Amino acid sequence: MTAIGATAPAAVLRRPAVDPGEPFVGFTFDYLVIGGGFSLLVLALLGSGTMPSASVFLREHLWTFVLLSNSAHFAGSTVRLYTRPGSFRDLPFLTMGLPLVSLVVLALGLVFPGALGQNLLSLYLTWSPYHYSAQAYGIAVLYCYRSGASWDETEKRWLRLACFAPFFYSFLTIPGAGMSWLMPAAVLADPAAAAVRGFAATAAQVASFAAPLALFVRHQASGRARLPLISLLAMLANAAWLVMLSYQVAMVLAVITIFHGLQYLAILTIVHVKEQMKRPGNGAPAWRHAAGFYARCLGLGYLLFQVWPHAFVLAGFSYAESLLLVVSVINIHHFIVDAFIWRLRRDPSYAAAAASET
Amino acid sequence: MSTTPSAVRAERLYRLAFKLGLLIAVACFVAGLAHVAVSEHRLPGLEMDPLIRARNALANGEKAAAAREYRGLAAVNSRDFDLLLQAAEGLVRAGDAAGGAALIARAWSMNPGHPRVQTTLGWAFYWTKKYDDAAARFEMALRANPREVRAHAGLAEVRLEQQRYAEAEASLLRALELDPTIGSAHNSLGVAYAFTGRPQRAVEEFGIAARLSPTPEILANLDRARGEAARSQP
């Protein structure tokens, strides 16, 4: 028994009934931005229709918000890849080969829109909800680590399943992607197949909300390592994004991508700043590292999404197909890069970010 | 010993691939910037709507350019039901009724009888000035789904053409209640107000429409309505 344990009353040492999680910046910032709480407030406001002026304002400035958040977040994974110490040595294909492969695939997609282009788009739309769910899982686990929880493999599997239920729902229901892309239309039109698919989609829809809640309650009741409240919020926010809202409605989709991007940028910037601050001889304050990192992400995001499609218009393709395929290829590149740079436990910077200062 | 030369070769290849990729990417960025700077005398703006060029081309009366954009969209995105319908309607507006009909047929095969297909058919009839057929399709869509925003908006456009302003106003208010971000619906509501002697309210609606989609037509409406409103002041 420690000295404190020997002298302090037991009630003082008992953990709070609900673990709120160990914030990176502060509870308000972490719950609103990283946990996704702000997105739920905004989407509820838009959905309620009580403030049409808010919807008009958002629509008016939609692409500015998309650039500031979503485009910057896509660029963020690339900036992170090339600024991470040892990336070129450890990930030669990812850093040096994948860009050229992506460019070749993009060019082929433009030349063969029917055979390749639309499949690239479907691949991106199928992968995207998986990526969102993986991010929710990553954030949930990150806060578990920060709370000092040690989870065994079985618990992590349940957590992963709970995070990925919204992906299963999206996979089953997104038009033009997921199952409707991979399965022949005749099979999907079969009444028995349609019934099974409908049942599975409903089950995934329910599980998207019920599974995280059940996991949270189970951990609360068992008294073992508990799922922090912010992890639960991140999982429920992702479920709301992918399940409760019509994923393909342009405005909603754009708003969701803005909040997903914000979440990602926040974590990425924290990792970057922590790394920079630990460098020997660092004299710059944290805000300068954060601002410099974000400025690079923003600049690259502008070049990728606003400038790049026009190059193919110059080459004779329509703006519509250029933009759609550029967006598809950037997304797929981002998903691949992301899968490598966020390999939980293997990434030393991730461990550094996960470690709580307290 | 045998692995070392192959590792060196692989690294050389990777470095070559990286340099080539970087060169192509930089060339693309420069070309994209130069293309917009030369053709439009500005830097690329913030726009990620794949149909923005098509809509602008239609607004400027460049039907061939608009049709090319819509065909490009349909070629890449034929599995997205909503975008397919938008491309179908766009092609009809751009004068390619046969191309539009083919896309509507494709959408119909994806979702037979879906209210949004009926809505697109309604708009296709509207753009070809078959107003009674258009109204029938919009009403059919609204019977299937009373929250079908574009059917409300379409029915309103038909009623405006038929000078049935009170009905147009009711449909537009319903459409904007469901989605307050449709610039064209605010514009049409402004038109309905202007034709029924409410210039001040027309200015408000044209103002919102101009914020959402500042097309030359909407900006001209706003100017005219401001003039009307100024004249009507005591």
Blueprint of the fold:
The complex is a heterodimer of chains A (358) and B (234).
Chain A: H1 3-7, H2 10-13, H3 27-34, H4 37-48, H5 52-60, H6 62-83, H7 87-90, H8 92-111, H9 113-146, H10 153-173, H11 179-182, H12 185-189, H13 191-222, H14 229-244, H15 250-278, H16 286-314, H17 319-341, H18 348-354
Helix pairs in contact in A: 6-15, 6-16, 6-17, 8-9, 8-17, 9-10, 9-14, 9-17, 10-13, 10-14, 13-14, 15-16, 15-18, 16-17
Chain B: H1 3-40, H2 52-59, H3 63-76, H4 81-93, H5 97-110, H6 115-127, H7 131-144, H8 149-161, H9 165-178, H10 183-195, H11 199-212, H12 216-232
Helix pairs in contact in B: 2-3, 3-4, 4-5, 4-6, 5-6, 6-7, 6-8, 7-8, 8-9, 8-10, 9-10, 10-11, 11-12
Commentary on this structure:
The complex is a heterodimer of chains A (358) and B (234). Chain A is mainly alpha-helical and 358 residues long. Helices cover 79% and strands 0% of the residues of chain A. Chain A has 18 helices and no strands. In chain A, helix 6 crosses helix 17, helix 9 packs parallel to helix 17 and helix 16 packs antiparallel against helix 17. Chain A is globular, with a radius of gyration of 22 Å. The N terminus of chain A is likely disordered. Chain B is mostly helical and 234 residues long. Helices cover 79% and strands 0% of the residues of chain B. In chain B, helix 6 packs antiparallel against helix 7 and helix 6 runs parallel beside helix 8. Chain B is globular. The model of chain B has no long low-confidence stretch (mean pLDDT 92). Chains A and B meet through helix 5, helix 6, helix 8, helix 9 and helix 16 of A and helix 1, helix 2, helix 3, helix 9 and helix 11 of B.
